[in-house]
Design a protein that fits this description.
single chain, about 300 residues, seven-stranded mixed sheet, about 25% helix
């Protein structure tokens, strides 16, 4: 069961130094990440179904939910992105030609206290604060090729009914969009990005794999999901997602784009100079510690190669 929580790309294949007690930067260590592009799937049955799922006929729109006001009894109550919304801004790269409209929308929101707002164009729908509610996932969603949720997550490895995304509550719920609700969605998405804590974790059942939010979104019709194995600090997440978006925009499939983003983020060329602490980074970030870059994994079909 413990293997389900292990990012295999963080396994060490060799060291670049002879002293086993050396505590130098992790960029000097070779990981499985450096040799392979790795993706995951909940079970062989899910893999077989995904391989038969055809790609979208068109690119579709992007749906972005962020900074919800969570209900009582669930997780932290602070606003997620009052400090600048880096994660959401990074997602802009994944929208068709987003630079002007998305940036203008986000900058306008960031200047407003509370900023519970909506912004819609032909390419994306963005909902922040009180409008990032469970109601936004209870409408027809097949027009969206990309769904990005920068929200809180709740995981109960013993009771799957208490696992789900924490959104702003609607009039008839407490804000927990649980696994049953996710499975009931009717999606035609190429990619779902879950920028929330531990969205790739959950109760493990023999023959079924991990009952995670990532698995639930695959069952609902997404062809791929980028999810997390543990907590998601804003700055590190935003930097990795910027690289992911750049790779997707350049034509990489999801697994390759995420792999390249991790390699870049941990200090491999052509990343920034190693050992230099940028504003907002930790020493672990600068050293390329796997605790920083290995939290995101790609779940879905390895045969999925269509760019979102």
């Amino acid at each position: 069961a413990e293997l389900a929580d292990l990012p295999f790309e963080a396994l060490v294949t060799s060291r670049a130094v002879t002293d086993p007690n050396h505590e130098g930067p992790f960029s000097k260590i070779e990981f499985l990440l450096d040799r392979f592009v790795i993706s995951y799937c909940p079970s062989s049955a899910v893999l077989a179904a995904l391989c038969l799922r055809p790609p979208r006929r068109d690119r579709g729109k992007g749906l972005f939910l962020a900074d919800p006001i969570t209900g009582p009894g669930f997780g932290p109550k602070e606003r997620l992105y009052d400090s600048g919304g880096e994660v959401l801004a990074a997602a802009a790269r994944m929208v068709q030609d987003p630079s002007a409209e998305f940036d203008r929308a986000y900058r306008q929101f960031s200047l407003e206290v509370g900023r519970s707002r909506q912004w819609s164009t032909d390419d994306f729908d963005l909902y922040l604060g009180a409008l990032a509610s469970t109601d936004r996932l209870r409408v027809p969603l097949r027009a969206y090729g990309l769904i990005h949720c920068a929200v809180h997550g709740e995981v109960d490895t013993k009771d799957p009914s208490r696992t789900g995304l924490l959104l702003t509550p609607s009039s008839d719920d407490d804000g927990l969009f649980d696994l049953e609700a996710i499975r009931a969605l009717d999606l035609d998405a190429e990619l779902v990005i879950l920028s929330a804590c531990s969205t790739a974790r959950g109760k493990i059942l023999a023959g079924e794999g991990v009952l995670s939010m990532a698995a639930a979104f695959l069952e609902a019709g997404s062809r791929g999901v980028v999810a997390t194995l543990w907590g998601v600090p804003d700055y590190e997440a935003s930097q990795l997602l910027r690289q992911l978006g750049a790779g997707l925009s350049g034509g990489d499939d999801v697994a390759l784009a995420l792999t390249r983003a991790k390699r870049h983020f941990r200090g491999d060329p052509p990343a920034a100079d190693r050992g230099v602490l940028l504003e907002g980074t930790s020493q672990a970030t600068s050293d390329g510690h796997p605790a920083v870059w290995a939290r995101y994994i790609c779940t879905g079909s390895p045969l999925h190669t269509k760019q979102w």
